Amino acid sequence: MRKLKLAIEGYLFLLPWLIGTAVFMLYPLGNSLYMSFTKVSVATDGSGLQYDFIGWDNFKYAFIYDNEFPVDMFLFVREMVLTVPITVIFALLIAIMLNQQFRGRMFFRTLFFLPVIFATGQVLTALFDQGQAKLPFADQYHIADMLYEVLPVNIAEVLVELIGKFVIILWFSGIQIILFLAAFQTIPASVYEAARIDGVTPWESFWKITFPSTVPFVFLNLVYTLVDQTASPFNPILKFISTNMADPETGFGYASALGWLYSVIILIPIILVLLAAKLQNKGRR
């Protein structure tokens, strides 16, 4: 009975989002799914768009005949595998520092959150074009050349790309920092006081008290960061979909198929993270 009550309460909190999704998103999603199985073109009689059903041809074309989409998708996933953990780890470290008692703590918390407000796609693109996203010492010490000398080419390429926009990647950590700070507030101060009385060191306190209590928020931040990366202005897949949408040879039909393929591929790591979080939660009980 208690589980049912908690489930109902949870769905009530989700109700505004569910209503909004049903009203504003169900029809566009359904229409997009239908167009992915069609060849969309402009009718010659001026009556609007013409839909010619072609089945799975758009999806087959994406993997068999299109030379760009599989390559761009692989490169994006490869980069995301490194970008997401780096962002979450950086957010955790910064949150630990911002959780300490020191003068100007609120100022620094605001400072790390400001990029979330101001860093629009146009701002990030402009900074990237001006070379402001690189680590300052990367060119000075020829870090890229060193990586190519000591690492395989495929791994070195990814690391060089990350260094090329490392500052901007860290700008995406504002929300994650706030979530980690919220996680730290759930730990009673009395627990740390008891640990100090027992002679527990700060290092032991982190691994035995702070981190175990923060693990659920690590999974939450992994999911958030994965979703956030899918809408990045540097995402080559979104640009590729937009290009095909405006191309009269491919049009809305093929672009819709690419969008659905991209969504399914992105859902795979998200589902894996959620399953890992569920297993971890069961293990704690």
Automatic annotation (TrEMBL):
What are the UniProt keywords, alphabetically?
Cell membrane, Membrane, Transmembrane, Transmembrane helix, Transport
**Sequence ranges assigned to domain ABC transmembrane type-1 in this UniProt record:** 73-273
What InterPro entries does its record include?
Answer: MetI-like, MetI-like_sf, UgpAE/MalFG_permease
Q: Where does the protein end up?
A: Cell membrane
Q: Any keyword Lyase?
A: no
Its membrane topology = Multi-pass membrane protein
Extract the PROSITE patterns matched here: ABC_TM1
- TM helices/strands, residue ranges: 12-30, 80-98, 110-128, 162-184, 205-227, 252-277
Q: Which domain of life is it from?
A: Bacteria
Q: Which PANTHER family match?
A: BINDING-PROTEIN-DEPENDENT TRANSPORT SYSTEMS INNER MEMBRANE COMPONENT, BLL4140 PROTEIN
Its protein name is Sugar ABC transporter permease
- Species: Paenibacillus lignilyticus
